[in-house]
Amino acid sequence: MFFWVLALLILCGFLWNYKRQLKIADITDKYIFITGCDTGFGNLAARTFDKKGFHVIAACLTESESIALKAETSERLHTVLLDVTDPENVKRTAQWVKNQVGEKGLWGLINNAGILGVLAPTDWLTVEDYREPIEVNLFGLINVTLNLLPLVKKARGRIINVSSIGGRLAFSGGGYTPSKYAVEGFNDSLRRDMKAFGVHVSCIEPGLFKTGLSDPIKATEKKLAIWKHLSPDIKQQYGEGYIEKSLDKLKGTNSSVNVDLSLVVECMDHALTSLFPKTHYAAGRDAKTFWIPLSHMPAVLQDFLLLKQKIELANPKAV
Fold it and tell me: Tens of pLDDT along 104-136?
């Protein structure tokens, strides 16, 4: 009996793996739109999918990066300047994309644009510190999706939302993790709403990657700028050496940061080209072995492990 159960499990595993490897027939007539193509994941994705034969429309925030990307790619790739927080800019861009794709519609929408914002203890921050990452990472993503959704429905295509392990576990104070938690919720509701239209919606949850987004020097500079304006009480509670200790702790985690950005682009590729795309993709060794498993654990265990990474306060009772 055990032998037959084992054989059945092996057969199911083989069929499941085979199903995941089935690809769409042709990509050379398909258009995809990618946000946040100046650097990082979006830039690599634009260059990768251009080489594969897709008609790529790469949205960049700056003209200089747009020109640089166009110079490195084929004539198929088009760039467009886009600020996802500007509703009129998004609306004009959607109309331009509609004119480009015509009756074919838009096969793929990759919502990749995002910012980190300020990562700091909650009691250091104001509501404005939360506003910027939420405007970009959440409302920008939603607005782009809503404006391009009719074109994706026409093609019965794919929507790929780049979230983060920060959408599964709140590893720091600031607007980044609330924005990514909300992206996860929007992604799930969108996936269910679009199922009847034949549109597949996937969410990618990268771990910690070495990109401009996660530059420790920039993060520390932002912390220092906020520190200068904190009240004497809060400075006394945290201690003058808090930021320096935080930076030392951050440097100690550099060995666990993923450097291969193609791990995220491979997830995008599968979500775009597989006949059976996944609903969620974890990208990076840390995401798969630590962050995602921990997100399923009891809160008491999450708190224990994450609080171990925090710096001990100088005088928390000085309130």
Answer: 999 999 999 999 999 999 999 999 999 999 999
For CA atoms 309, 115, 152, 19, give the dihedral sign.
negative
Compute the C-alpha angle 62/64/67, nearest 5°. Answer: 110
Among 31, 176, 242, 281, the one annotated catalytic: 176
Q: Which residue has the tokens 């650097």?
A: 39
Q: Which residue has the tokens 């060794």?
A: 285
Contacts of residue 81, defined as CB under 8 A and 6 or more positions apart, other chains included, come to 59, 60, 61, 62, 63, 66, 89
CATH class of 25-213+257-302: alpha beta
DSSP one-letter code for 258: B
d(CA 147, CA 289): 36
Cα distances (angstroms) measured from residue 286 to each of 86, 106, 177, 205, 309: 34, 33, 17, 11, 15
Our answer to whether residue 18 is catalytic in this structure is no
pTM over 0.85: yes
CB 155 within 8 A of CB 258: no
The span from the CA of 144 to the CA of 135, in Å, is 12
Q: Domain extents for the chain?
A: 25-213+257-302
Please enumerate in sequence order all residues whose Cβ is within 8 A of that of 221, keeping only pairs 6 or more positions apart, or say none. none
